[in-house]
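hey team, just a heads up i'm posting the complex here instead of the shared drive bc the drive is being weird again. everything in one block, sequence lines first with there labels, then the predicted structure for the whole assembly after. its two chains so it's a bit long, scroll down
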Amino acid sequence: MLVDLSAEVLSNTRLAPDYNVVAFAAPSIAQAARPGQFVMIRTSPGLDPLLRRPFSIFEHLRDADGRLVGFSILNKRVGAGTSKLYDVRPGDRLSVLGPLGRAFEPVHPPHEAWMVAGGVGLAPFASLAEALAQRGTTMTLFYGGRRAADIYCEDLFERLGVRLVVTTEDGSRGEPGRVTGPLKRALADRQRPTTIYACGPTPMMRAVADLGAEAGVPVFVSLEPVMGCGMGGCYSCVVPVRQDGGPSHLVRGCLDGPVFDASALDWARLEGVGH
Amino acid sequence: MADLSVRIGSLELRNPFLAASGCFGYGVEYARAFDLTTLGAVVTKGLFLNEREGHPPPRIVETPAGMLNAIGLQGIGVHRFVAEKMPELRRLGATVIVNVCGTTIEEYCEVSRILSDTEGVAALELNISCPNIKEGGIQFGCSLTGTYDVVSAVRRVTPLPIIPKLTPNVTDVASFARAAEEGGADAVSLVNTFLAMAIDVETRRPKLSNVLGGLSGPAIRPIAVRMVWECHQAVKLPIIGMGGIASARDALEFIIAGATAVQVGTANFVDPFVWRDLVAGVDDYLDRHGIARIRDLVGRLELPGQDHR
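-- predicted structure starts here --
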C-alpha cells in the first residue's frame, strides 16, 4: 500500500563527515516495503528544494517485541536536499511517500548472495541482508570506498551473519584498490550457484555487470537516476533497457526499477547520460 | 459542500482540478495512490501518432521555487495509448482529456480522428506549445496563423471539445487565445512552461541535455495569472489556467482571474495527494464567502474604483 506520511524522525546518527542514517517512525511503510524499494522524502516544507528526494529503504526498524515500527535511510550530504537531511533532529516531521519501485528478489539456499556496494550504494543492502538471513542464505558483502571514512555500518551486517570484504582505493582500510578486485577472485573460486546484487557508482556497477556476465552469474543492480516524482508521472528518471537483445529504449527508473537485471541494461548509454 | 462542477464547452467536470499533461503519466500510474475520480479530469501525456523516445537525461533540474524540464515528449504513440491505457482509464472511471501532439497539421488531425473514435476520451488538448522539441508543436503555437490553422483543421475532424494549450513564450498571449477562438476551439488552456536555461558554472555546461527547458512551479505563477487575466478579457471561451498552482488559494487566484478550471503539474510531483487539499480548500473558501457554485467565482476580480453593487 502506497502512502504519504508525516513521519517523525526517531534519530539522526552521524556515521562520518557527510554520511548519516535517519530513522523514521512509519509502521505502514516498513510493513509494506520490500528490499530495494525506495521512498520519496520531502526534505523541506517550503520551496527550496522544491522536489522530493528518493532514498532506498536502508533498515527495517523493529521494537522490542519484533514489530515493524519504521525504517531508516542512508544519506550522503551532497546537495540542498541531502544537506537538509543531514541536519534533521529527532522529533522533526518529514513527508515520506512510499514504498515505491521494483524490489530485489532475495535468493534461497543453496544459492549464495553476494552484495557489492560502493560508498552510499550500501543503502539498499541492510534490508536485503535481513531478508536473506531469514531465508538462511549465505551472504557476502563486497564493500568499497575511496577511503576509510567511506566505510561504515559493518557491525550491522556482521550481526546479520554477512561475510565482509572491504576495499578502499587509498588503502586506508581493507584491501587496497577497487571492490571488483576481490569480486573477480571470488568469482573464479566460486563453489555454489551465486546471485550478485550491486549498488554504487555507475562505472562500478557496469564493471560488476561485466564480471557477472563473463562468469555466467546473474547480476541485479539498484540504479539511482535523478527523479522528479517517483510515481511515473514525469519521465525524468529514464533508464536505457534492452528487450530481446535489440536496441535499448528508455523506461522509467521509478516504475521499472530502481532494481534492474544488469544484463538488460544498455550500459554504454547509461554511462553516457551521467547517472 | 459547494457545487464544484464546471463546464468546458460540452464537457461537464465534477470539479475544476485537472492533472496537467506531462506531469501525471497516462493517469493509470496514480490509480494505486487514489481514486482518479477525485480529479475533474486527467490530461494525459502528449501523444503523437507514433512512439517517441524523448531527450537523454538529465531531463530535469531544480531552480528557485521551480524546475526546468526537457523530457522531449517521450510517449507511446496514440495507437498503443488506445490499446494499452484507455481500457484501464475507462475501468477506473477517469474523465480523460488527451494531449494531442503533431509535427504537421495532418498528424494533429490523424491523432484527433483516432481518439474521436475511442470510447472514453472526453476532450482533446492540442499541444501547440511544448518548448522542448524542434519540429511541430511550438512552431504552430508561436504563430497566429499556425494556431488558427491547427485548431480549425482539427475542428473539422472531431466532435470532441478541443482545447489548444497556449505557450507563454509570446508577446501577446491574448491574441493567440483569439486565434484559437476563431479557429473553433471550445476552450484554451494556459500556460505551458517558460523557455529557460540553467548552467553549471563549475563545468560551464548546461544542466539539461537539451540545453533549454521549460520552467514550471510556483516561480511562474504570477506571470501565468496575468496571462489568464489577459485572455479572459480577450475571449469568451472558457479558460483552463495553470502555472505553479500548489494550493487551493493558488487555484482560486486563477479562477478569480478568469479560469473556469485549473491544471496542476509540478505540485503533483511534490505531493501526489494534493487534490484532496485543493477540493477541501476551495470548498471551505466558497462556504466562507457564501458562494454556492465555483462557476460563479470565475473572473470575479474586483478592480479598485469599480462599482460592484
